[in-house]
Amino acid sequence: MAGSRMKLEFSRVIQGRSRLGVLKGLGRNGQDSMEVPGCLLYTHFGTVPHLTQDTLHTLSNLPSVTQVTLSNIAEHQEVLEEFKDGFRKFAGLHDTLLYCSLHDPAAPCPTGYTTNKTVSVWGSGGRIELTVAKFMALQKIVQPDWYQSMADGETWQNNTSRKRVRKSVDRTLTHLDECLVVHQNSQELDGVEVFGVVEGGDILEERVRSARETAKRPVAGFCLDGLQTGSMDQTLRTQLIAAVTKELPEDKPRLLQGVGRPDEVLACVEAGMDLFESFFPFQVTERGCALCFDFNISPDPERAVLELNGGERDTAGETQPNGDHNLDDQTQMTSFEIDLKDKRYQDDFRPLVEGCGCYCCKNHQRAYLHHLLVTNELLAGVLLMIHNTAHYHGFFGALREALANDQLDLLKDRVLRGRGGQTERKE
Amino acid sequence: MAAVIECGADIDTTPENHMSLKKTLSSASPLTLRIVAECSVTKARACDLVLPHCTVSTPVFMPVGTQGTLKGITVDQLEGLGCQICLGNTYHLGMRPGPDLIEKANGLHGFMNWKRNLLTDSGGFQMVSLVELSEVTEEGVKFKSPYDGKEILLSPEKSISIQNSLGSDIMMQLDDVVSSTVTGPRVEEAMHRSIRWLDRCIAANKNPDKQNLFAIIQGGLNADLRKTCLDEMTKRDVPGFAIGGLSGGEEKDDFWRMVTLSTDHLPREKPRYLMGVGYAVDLVVCVALGCDMFDCVFPTRTARFGSALVPWGSLQVKHKQYAKDLQPIDPDCKCPTCKRHSRAYLHALFKSDTAAMHHITIHNIAYQLTLMRSVRQSIVEGHFPEFIRTFMKRMFPSRDQYPSWAVDALASVNVTLE
């Protein structure tokens, strides 16, 4: 790999940590770019859950990079091999970059199936074991713009032993070296970028070793694995990220796997992360909820008056506090969303979020969404996914704007305030 | 031409008619039927049906959006496919979210944000088919709510009151539905009762200036009963007629004869709606027999099981044989699904996401609507019989596979198939 074309150009770095910039040189022609902090477009086999291209493209400002996973793709190796033109064309995606990861961040897979030479992914037909050879054969037929190197990421559970963590770091480095050898000898992968995977569980020294060693390899960027929501609290996560990023070169992007909650995203950006996966809006959709947290920091005189008068925000009183203390269960509702199955929305003729410009909010009311959910109608998933995707990507836009204008604290205050208010009410 | 009413003098005086024959001269119903073209060979016709929300080109297939939504498709997508009228089910919507809430949301149009026309059924059919504990009396249909177990009476007045709350452009009378396979005195009773209920429905309609009430011809598979029903109902001043009680598992030979008998006696200047019919062959044949409007859950329901409708029948996307098939479902189809996706991708997507169903649903609605547009065009251009022959040739691999009922039905309207 004669030097990666992918390059991060910063417009601003705050306190040596939060990074605002543009990831350039993307795509096989090197012409595309994406802003960071940013997130990828989450999909099932190239399709944003519930959405067709028509409904997806009611959304503007979609991320330029789409994430696909080998857990979806591996079982279709044969047809893709025959197709020859890569996954993007196979899936009817014309205008997006493709990032291929190993696992689906919203579908944690069972542990206990990795060996020295293999990792396993779970598709609709069950487990598929991947060697480096098979893993690389898949990359060659998928033809992504960039992919995550093969990794042993089974150290996220509590009480994983130091020995097991060390083994995962060693294996992951070995997989990376083997992937790179195949990569460099594959014409099909010319211009495709590899992200090395940083493992190390919750053990600081192993994290540092993994980062330091991975950084020595010719990778375009880094995936931080094993830090996902549910595996540890944010304090420890922040510590580990801070230690890891110190070992990584400044100009290469860092993708954090498995973290999507807005409060956690904010903390991780502050700790130096650049890229996230957008599985969170999907999870919110699946539980029949709508994202409603406030991220608006543009000055708005009317709003300021409202606040002076102690006016309560529209949505603050409606979110139900739970989930925050339940680290293990990602299916639990968080305080960033409202549960539209709740009876109180039965005759609520307001949009999901007042002022939201998404197709759902411009055309439908909470009462209708409530009806679709209680009658189990498929359109509920479609409309919620549209709104949640719009809201979540809007949040990332606001995050970049806040970094540009030195208003990160203000944004944090906005995003977290609903939660503070919760606690008060609860007590 | 607005509904022309012949009335007054020769009202027949069977006992059923004494009730409330509310015949007024030239009531201004919110419906106009303009006959654009009539086939010179068959009974087919192409019309513009002007309804409160937009003009509908007939013959028309109306997709069914049972609970105020068309199975995973947004109203914009449905509009994009050219749909001008779709259905809502009174029974389901009356239960959840209920007429009061829908009224508050400015009717079903407002609730689901659908800008074009809606037709609602009476709720009676679901009652009989879905609810086990239902009892039909002169008063109405009595049943137990599946949601809270409460006993509910769906009377003609109640059905219309709910449909008035829904605000549909076309409402259906409550009829006494008997399975088309039942014979004997029950069928006759149901036919007469349906006539009495029609009068009660007409009287109960609070919005005759905004909502059209259609009568439903009953009479089972008995030609005499059908004829009696036709005679009676056509005396009423209703803006349109449906042919009911068919498409319920009866022999196709009986089915088409009842359809053609009905269209023979229905007034030319009013729309004719054949309920529950949606298979492509049935549509084409029944257009030839003179029907204008059709509805069926089949195209959307079958889509969710991976069955895509094509000019040569159907294609089971989930079957293994399509796993590596890189063609679109139908290479000639112009729908958003066929323009972008291959059979192989859709086959694989069925294993990963529900969006696969939406793709097929969109395709199937597009298929139905395109079929009807082609039928209409051929009627307008004067070559409908030729269209039928080409259609049948494409649908069936050989002449001997043509269903005999379709051959007979078409022969009855002067179309012979080679």
Describe this structure in words.
The complex is a heterodimer of chains A (427) and B (418). Helices cover 38% and strands 17% of the residues of chain A. The relative contact order of chain A is 0.12. Chain A has two domains: 7-278, Queuine tRNA-ribosyltransferase-like (TIM Barrel, Alpha-Beta Barrel); 286-417, no CATH class. Residues 305-317, 319-328 and 420-427 of chain A have low confidence and may be disordered. In chain A, helix 5 crosses helix 6, helix 7 (204-216) packs parallel to helix 8 (234-247) and helix 13 (366-374) packs across helix 14 (378-404). Chain A has an eight-stranded parallel beta barrel, surrounded by four helices. In chain A, strands 1-2-3 form a three-stranded antiparallel β-sheet. By secondary structure, chain A is of the alpha/beta class. The N and C termini of chain A lie far apart (58 Å). Chain B is of the alpha/beta class. Chain B has two domains: 60-295, TIM Barrel, CATH 3.20.20; 297-382, no CATH class. Chain B has 16 helices and 16 strands. In chain B, strands 4-14-13-12-11-10-6-5 form an eight-stranded parallel β-sheet. A three-stranded antiparallel β-sheet of chain B has the order 1-2-3. Chain B has a three-stranded antiparallel β-sheet with strand order 7-8-9. The longest helix of chain B has 26 residues, at 355-380. Residues 1-26 of chain B have low confidence and may be disordered. Classes of the chains: A alpha/beta (427), B alpha/beta (418). At the A-B interface, helix 1, helix 3, helix 13 and helix 14 of A face helix 1, helix 12, helix 13 and helix 14 of B.
